[in-house]
């Protein structure tokens, strides 16, 4: 049937129409596909223990990873600084992918340039690309800073950023005093969180050079890490202003990734002021809100700035408590009454929902800091982690997560799976099912196969809108996280109890 | 001859180009100048150079050869496993990004929305990845036994470290008894996705057709031909496009033997050298294999355009003209069957869209192909350009655009924004990287790569959706909320826009 102009059907409905169903059936004769029974047999086999063992025995193959590569994290850090244009030395396709991916998650513009290296650069190196590229982007996009990182192509051929940038400055591409921090970000080392760390260190060491003073400026630095919730930096600002101390968020990309629609496009909304970043070397302390994406940066701050650093992950009640006490200790200001009231509200929300989450078994995957933080909060709710999978894991994370699990009676049945991917997770979910799964958008394939409800927390989230706008940290973040988890569980109960006279016994109005 | 009333437009727009170029350093301006032009009626091309390296640091929208091969040509072949060979990022950031719909049980007999990678580590760079690749192919054949073959999609490091993926392909192909296709589509090759398409096409020729040639010789090729056998070439089934096209070709009585490559299978590729005609939608990405089939097997190919009722009818008639009277009569019947619906769709939406202007920038085909669909709705093109077209694409574009249309090749973010600010189109039709830039400017926008998660847009069924979507983009009440009522500057801008709309 042709379309009805009054009720036009797109792909969501169109292909369920009989003529398309017929078309699909007809097409099979040319496909040399497998018999339906065979597909069914194999599908069943992939759900079992035999398959799980074979799946876990693989050494060379990665299927559906839960990590990306360094430069994306690097440019994510870079746009947190005022007027900063990320510049990626290497092939140009990578930048198209990074911009696309970030844009699909945030529904926001993301600017970044490539030096567009091709075969000739592979042979002769990318110096000329750097010289021309810096000149072009400086003139065209008028940034206050250009932050340079690399793709694996530039890394394999051994481009030397420091000398290239010096050469480009000699050639007059940008003024001598213009900041061009850099970081080598090979995609075959670590993951996107490593790139964040490398770029952050590169930017800070560039901007703070020569700015060390005799006396402290009394401020507290915050480094968010590869945190993709724009609400979080705003929460930090709100908490700091409630205390009333002076602070600097290093790489504050919350305005960049959530800018107002004014009818005009601003390429560089918000960001940490470069002079504030330069003065961050004189702060009294630096607090990183993630551990594993700030490792080298913290080492550098301790060693070069002689400044104390600490890690505070203000997720859940205890995480937020510790964070606020740390802030109170550093600033000498007692914790504001307002925040204690908020704490009470968050705990109240948790008690309201406790019965629906207590004892529920869940699986989780994501970046190490995110997983650590969410597991911590779920333990506070009495939920039981079962499969904890971190593809870009490390030994420090494994030790700390095990310690966290050991500290709670609800953490006794969890297994930590470092370096594993989402196809491993599929086997885990089939062989040892759980009540819900926490992960990013890519987890929807696991939901389809296993029917285990997915709570979307992490990066990327591309198939749901606006989740990134919320905060996940602080007491307010507790309520947001709780909302996502408990309401996903309710949706699932409703989904399973909506057939009249068959399953709708428990189709309750009040929960 | 340029009509005098348009002479001004041409001069004005040439001035605009000059002005935009003045922002570049001299060396860059000289190079970019060749890629920007105003189309003058009667010229045989658009007056732009194309398929040339992008300048460093200018923010090109282009991708790479891997994107062209894995992302576009090979990736949609649903029953093969495509290995993103190299570091983890390329496949991860592009995972499921193109919406090539397919039917199958993912992970069991089809693998389209999965990401397989060798996840290169430093040691793989140092010692080479061939051993790992060999092992990986053995492992995947155990875990995914119903796969019908494997392709190796090279990422940048592979070509730089001197791996021999062809040797691995030959060896593992014997071991698993299935095709293993090595593709050297490293991202640094060529100037855009375009070379990736070409390399991918060439590998079909060298690693797939060699098998069907052999099978033909052995008499093992199971194929019973009919006089009506065709293949759909260059439709990636975005949002179901290829299905909305196939249904029409089948309705006029043709037998569609293969879809390249949306919802496609390797078997369909193997069969294609036996068809009577190749029907090519995306000329840019698959003209290579079409030309090869013409040379090697004598199969003619025909370009068609299934965007909008005007072009669909034209294309159906042209396709039918290559077959017998039965098919020709069927084509008329099909056109007549859908015409009332199309008239009703146009009657409903054209009044809301008539006279609105559009600026387009997409990949290698749609900047010309979608123009008639806009025209069917009364919408006018004021600028168009491609990310990775060649000269033959710009030649073909002249049939689609009007005098005075501004044409930009491999447009940079800066140029595109400046053009849009000056031309003030009612709608921008480009990609996701551009989408939110223009929406922040308060401009309605539709993605022309992914159909903005809608679709299909091909065929008669697709055009109805296309019309609906253009209307909802342009006539969304949300645009009118931009700018606070107490903000004088914002209100002045609004008044200006209103005045323009009234003209």
Q: What does this molecule look like?
A:
The complex is a heterodimer of chains A (511) and B (503). Chain A has helices at residues 11-14, 18-27, 36-45, 49-56, 70-78, 93-106, 119-124, 127-141, 152-157, 161-170, 192-208, 230-243, 274-279, 295-305, 316-331, 337-357, 368-380, 395-406, 422-431, 444-450, 474-495; strands at residues 62-63, 84-89, 113-114, 145-150, 220-223, 247-249, 285-288, 309-311, 361-365, 384-390, 415-418, 436-439, 454-456. With 511 residues, chain A is of the alpha/beta class. In chain A, the strands form 3 sheets. In chain A, strands 11-10-9-12-13 form a 5-stranded parallel β-sheet, sandwiched between helices. In chain A, strands 6-5-7-8 form a 4-stranded parallel β-sheet, with helices on both faces. In chain A, strand 7, helix 14 and strand 8 form a beta-alpha-beta unit. In chain A, helix 5 packs across helix 11 and helix 8 (127-141) packs across helix 10 (161-170). The longest helix of chain A is centred in the C-terminal third of the chain and has 22 residues, at 474-495. Chain A is globular and about 75 Å long. The relative contact order of chain A is 0.10. Chain B is α/β, with parallel strands linked by helices and 503 residues long. Chain B has 21 helices and 14 strands. In chain B, the strands form 3 sheets. In chain B, strands 1-12-11-10-13-14 form a 6-stranded mixed β-sheet, sandwiched between helices. In chain B, helix 1 runs antiparallel to helix 18 (413-423) and helix 14 (325-353) packs parallel to helix 20. The chains are: A alpha/beta (511), B alpha/beta (503). Chains A and B meet through helix 2, helix 3, helix 4, strand 1 and helix 5 of A and helix 3, helix 4, strand 3, helix 5 and helix 6 of B. Strand 1 of chain A pairs antiparallel with strand 3 (116-117) of chain B.
Could you give a short description of this structure?
Chain A is 47% helix and 10% strand. Chain A is α/β, with parallel strands linked by helices and 511 residues long.
